[in-house]
Amino acid sequence: MDNGKSANLEKENSDEEQDSLANLHEDKSFLRTLTRNQRYSLTRRIQAEYDRNQKRNKRSTLPSAWTESQDDPTEYFSRTHPVKQQDMVLEETHDCRHNIRFENEGERKWRKATVLPPRTGNVRFSDLGELDMGFVQTAAILNIDSILISLKERPLKIRKPAFCSEGNLFEIDQNTLINLDRHKLGAPLRHVPLLIDLLCQCADELANTPGIFRTCHSKNTMTDLKSKLVSLYQDNPAYFDHEVREILDEEAYRNPRIKGGLLKEILSCFPEPLCIRSFSPGFEAVGKLKDLNSQLELLNMLFLTLPSVNQHILRRILKLFKTISENEEMNKMSSKNIGVCLAPTLFMDKSSKPSKLSSTQIGLKMQSLSLALEIMIEYHQVITFVPKSIVNQLRQYKTDKSKLQSKGIWNLLPWKKQKDFHGDSIQKLITESSKLVVPVAAGENMSHRTVLLIIEDEKRIQYKTVPYSFDEKNSVKDMMKTVLGRHSKNSLFIEREGNLLEERNVPKSANLMAVFSENRGADFVLRTMPLNFVSDAL
Fold first, then answer.
1. 3-state secondary structure of 524
2. Which parts form a coiled-coil structure per UniProt (predicted)?
3. What are the backbone dihedrals phi and psi of residue 510, each rounded to the nearest 5 degrees, phi first?
4. Tell me, what's the pLDDT at 29?
5. DSSP string, 411-424
6. Per-residue pLDDT, 27
7. How many contiguous H segments (helices) and E segments (strands) does the chain have?
8. Is 167 helix (H, G, I), strand (E, B) or coil?
9. What is the pTM of this model?
10. In sequence order, what are the beta bridge partners of 450?
11. Among 533, 476, 520, residue whose Cα is nearest residue 122
């Protein structure tokens, strides 16, 4: 990228960040949901952006909210939204940590961890709609800033990821690749590129190969394989996925080391590394945290802040790496060894300018990034969940926003745009009393109720009032079996709107009464998915 383009991109990023900060600053509903540390982080971002623009003097006008104070925008912020800033970030809080149970496993370095779910079930990043994830990501950025400030590090400079929408299979970015696969396969719900998905399905072969990802493969063989795949993507055959599988199954390419090398090649060829170059300081800071819970909290926030496609791909390959590391006795590849081999691929890109760091500094940086990847592999399930505290903030935000009859949510991420949310979609069709869970008969015993379910499939939408007996033991899975029978296995239970901006996929293990009680104004949807949805959503 030449200097002119780089300067323009830098100015565009800065202007968009300033617009996002100004809009968040003026969103009273958003400010009311923030914790003390989150408010302080937002204040620091406003101050940094204000100072940067004062030095550049390239922006003709600053947001009015920032200029109402004569000298310092943080004074205005503190006056309109009082917060005690003294020792704020030094206060140790555990608001954004999961309730994790660690198991004692002898002398193992990493103990097995289980995220204990609340009664309404754990929330994965993929369970929430785009608007809801926008709020989660903004809250996550402020939490990351709080952690970095406590370590006396600078907050993250968030920049748009590099992209390339033109070129062959090994030149385009991950968003372009997944859209290409969706078009070729006619699968709009696919989240992981086909080639990466097929290579990850070879987990058993890769796990039984000594030195996978570390030992070299034939360069000529890899060049031939890449050439065939590029030609296939350009030819656009009728049975595209079948053709890709046939190429990978050819005798010349059956060696697991070639498949491992191909996966590494695909990941390293993205214009922007999977973990986003501008997030690198956040991942490096993991090594400066003293305890595992703090490290998991930071990695969790960083994962939630990544673009959606990156999250799905990263989740898929981390699961593969975990499978390989569990067979360490055979392949000699522990999670630490995989971290050393793959950290440059996931955190750095080939187009980076020559580093001004010394060899010692580069070594320390790679050591920190390798540790971050090692922990991500060992606890890949933990970092994909959204903390309950942030989900509660989201619900509070939507409730407050609805009272003000205000539309739109702003996001600090430069690849996200403002989007409007609308009122409950079923409100025009049925009355509020019949839409909610309503008692059949008055009296102290309220366990027998009816609920109006919206049943969606590929062909039609139905509205069905279902009498149901709720008790403390009934789960979402029990209700789905009662209503859908054998179709329940390939269906989702959706909690839509109410105190959410869009919707949430409720886990089948969640307690039914808890789900209804937490969001009484929601539409509850049973959505039958295509047969290939479950495997595709991995």
1. strand
2. none
3. -65, 150
4. 79
5. -S-TT---B---S-
6. 73
7. 23, 10
8. coil
9. 0.86
10. 438, 467
11. 476
Split the chain (538 residues) into runs of 10 and give each run's mean pLDDT.
Answer: 49 58 70 86 80 63 48 46 40 66 77 91 94 92 92 86 88 93 87 95 94 84 94 87 94 93 94 92 93 94 95 96 94 94 86 67 90 96 95 91 60 61 38 33 46 79 73 83 83 92 93 88 85 46
Is residue 376 within 8 A of residue 318, CB to CB? The reply is yes
Distance in angstroms (rounded) separating the CA atoms of residues 259 and 257: 5
What domains are defined for the chain? 1-91+142-155+401-421 (no CATH), 174-385 (1.10.555.10), 422-536 (3.10.20.90)
Q: If you write DSSP's letter for every residue of 59-126 in order, what string do you get?
A: -S---HHHHSSSS-HHHHHHHHS----TTTTTS---TT---EEEPP-TT-SS--EEE---TT--EEGG
What are residue 298's phi and psi, to 5 degrees? -65, -45
Distance CA 202, CA 194 (A): 13
What is the spatial distance between Cα 8 and Cα 167, in angstroms, rounded to a whole number?
23
Say if residues 381 and 98 touch (Cβ distance below 8 Å). no
* DSSP bridge partners of 528: 491
Which one-letter amino acid corresponds to residue 52? Answer: R
| Distance separating alpha carbons of residues 513 and 468, to the nearest angstrom | 11
